[in-house]
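job 3f2a | input accepted
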Amino acid sequence: MQTYYFDMKDGAAIRDRVGIAFDRDSQAIEHGKALARRLSLEHPDKHKDLCVIVLNQAGAEIHREPVYPTSLEPAS
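job 3f2a | predicted structure (76 res):
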């Protein structure tokens, strides 16, 4: 297991100093996506540029998830 960090950024970064342990990058990425969805529901229409950045234990960014996606697919 390694520790992953979930920073938030909307211009200025808010650093996650604790992190959460996962077995794989894919699990951490899914957690980051779920965190972004939860933030969008709990705080609608705040900071349009807000995103959740998933960092691995070495501090490398492995995923970036927008909290408020700007481009939604048109309905068919």
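job 3f2a | The longest strand covers residues 2-9.
job 3f2a | closed
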